[in-house]
Write a structure and sequence with these properties.
Strand content: 15-25%
Low-confidence stretches: 1-71, 73-81
CATH architecture of the largest domain: 2-Layer Sandwich
Oligomer: single chain
Shape: elongated
Largest sheet: 5 strands, antiparallel
Strand order of the largest sheet: 2-1-5-4-3
Helix content: 40-55%
Number of helices: 27
Structural class: alpha+beta
Number of strands: 27
Organism: Bradyrhizobium diazoefficiens (strain JCM 10833 / BCRC 13528 / IAM 13628 / NBRC 14792 / USDA 110)
EC number: 2.7.13.3
Enzyme class: transferase
Radius of gyration: 71 Å
Protein name: histidine kinase
Mean pLDDT: 77
Pfam families: HATPase_c, HisKA, PAS_7
Amino acid sequence: MESRWGYCRLIRARRGSPRVNSCGLGATMSGVIVSMRRTLLSCTSLVRDGLIGSALAALLPAAPAEAADFVGTLSELLDFNRQELAVLATALALLGFSVMAAILLMRTRVRTAKNEARLRARIGELQLQADRFGALLFAEPQILISWPAGDNRAQISGDVSMVLPRDSSPQRVLAFGTWLPPEPALQMDHAVDALRDRGDGFQLTLTTAHGHTLEAIGRAIGGQAIVRIRELSGLRRDLAETNLRYKALSDETEMLRGFAAAAPWPIWAKGENGALTFANPAYVRATEAASFSDAHERKLELLDSADRGAMERGLKDAANFTSRLPIVIGGERRIYDVRAVNVGSGSVGVAIDASEADALSSALVRMAEAHRRTLDQLSSGVAVFDGHRRLAFYNDSYRRLWDLDRTFLDANPDDSSVLDQLRAARKLPEQPDFRAWKAKLHEAYRAVEAAKDTWYLPDGRALSVVTTPNPEGGVTYLFDDVTESLELARRFDGMIRVQRETLDSLAEGVAVFGSNGKAQLFNPAFVRMWKLSSDAMRDEPHIQTVEGWCHQLFDDPVVWRQIREAVTSIESRADVPLKLDRKDGSVLDGMIRPLHDGATMLTFQDITDTENVERALRERNEALEAADQMKVDFVHHVSYELRSPLTTIIGFAHFLSDPSTGPLTPKQAEYLDYVTKSTNALLALTNNILDLATIDAGAMKLELGPVDVSKTIELAAEGIQDRLATDRIRLKVEIAPDIGSFIGDEKRVVQVLYNLLANAVGFSPQDSTVGISARRTEHSVVFTVTDSGPGIPADMKDKVFNWFESRSQGSRHRGAGLGLSLVRSFVELHGGKVRVDSIVGRGTVVICDFPTDQAAHRDAAE
């Protein structure tokens, strides 16, 4: 302050100086010039230092009129001094050159004296104003801090005791942290730095550590940074707080308006009369208005009349309104959550697009309902308890499982009540400490993972119980009746043990290889058969390893490659039979059988003995077939060799019996008759043998044509008339009226019927009846020959059609045993069938079926 008021003291000192006379013009003028120069330099220094300006700036809020007057006077003073200096400088320059200069200097002295007097008076006025402004500036406690441009040293004046103890150094004011809390101190530091660096002004309201409220104002004035700190009290503090609140309210309002403008939801405000007072751009777009003014003037509404009326009633009754309503925006109908509240004398509303939430909610409801329906169809009992341990959901299987009353369950009982009721009905497992058991069960409400347990109920059932904690709180119980499953598991384990024991006792070697080619199962027979180690097989060796072990007994690479491919292949999985002739002379019958799980089973059976027997049987069969062929060849040869002499004998016999050859004695005639009968029988036998040999060779050809059934029976019957007469046997013939004819070889059919009748007559007792009948079916003609002979034993039925199978027992005529063989051969050549029904002691029935359509028979044969 000493430097600030130095100019005023200088002026007061000048007031006491003596007045200059005219005699000492030069000295006086020099003194005036020196005095004016010093005065101007002092004023210029004061202006340059900015202290007057600083004082004026500090006083502006308190006395703006006095400060303005002071500044004007000071400026006039400075302007006047500059003019006089210029005049005096010119007078001194001319004083040495002319008298005129002296006169002018005299005049200048007189004028300067007057101006000096006027200047002293003006300086006095300025001193008074400066004193008044200083008194006004420090009329209240405050601190002024100034930083000249480019100087970091601060000049501090004022009452620093308002923030520091009285004996403290003024420079400690700059340490804001000593008298301000940390946050305000940091704020003050940043504000002062911004003021000094960039000239940014500030105005802060601070609260000291002692609870005093201060106002700090920073300004850049005259190239200096000035900070003024003063205490707020009374009205001024209230005004400051009001200004702060107003600014905060203004900022908050601006922020809210910016948020409303940026929000994608329609937001509006209405006055007391229901008129629109504010609408954001989203509301304007939703109502298809050009601007808010357009929407206000046209009274465009977002909601329809019914929804708007409901909102007005809600605001009137409850001061708020919330509803999910459909709104058409941009030609699209969407769902919005509309919320409105009364604010002051009006109301504010917002509409938030909830279409997606509504769709998700609907989908969630449908999904929950679908889940409920699905859970109702499950055989497992499901019960869901909420976070309060009350029953929130159950399915019908749960109710039926525990036989609980639906009314009781629909009342949402808690978990403990359900367990207590089940315990009272003796449906829960018997527990020595039921309370501890229930507490352990209820730990599921605090668990983070599902737990599984098995309950064995008093009624013999076994339940699988799964308790799963729900994410939103509560527990879901899942009950499954596993009584049958456990029983099946026990049976399965028993069956596996039995199968294992059975497999181990098998003589057949069995090994199962998995889809990875490793041995999974084997029995002791397999180990013995291939001379392997049981311990090595338990290590699940690969099929290639097993192959290497078995090479010493069987090393056929083709077979082993087939086995490897069958074990490791994923395609063409079919049974593959194997037959292995091993080096030790044994023979194994094997089978590669794919299993359903991707594994492959190898089975080996030692068939060395069977193979030897089969080889012996095969050799014997070949020998028998060769002997049979020799028999056939012999029969053919003998038959052809016998036909020529028989034909000659028969011819000569007929020639001798002819009367033209001469008479014969009775004895000769008798012998000749025996010869004729014997040769005829032998010729018939030979013909039969030749026919059978021809049929057996496949060279027999049928001469097909119409076969008259009645005529055929008649021709067959003629051949046995002498036997019928000799044995007094009656022949009974039954022919259906519609029998007609069929296509066949008539000669062979007659031969068939003749052999059947001859066989029946041969086995029928005297004075009996032999029957023959014929009937037509849809596709065949059936001949039936019956007799009342002794019948055919069961062990002979399969042999009666064999060659040379003759039964003399019960027959009066011994034959070669070729008759029935011919019958079967001829009937089968026609495509028919022969069957024999016989009961011992009651006779025999032979039935022959001849097909009526020989064309179909030929097509089938071809």
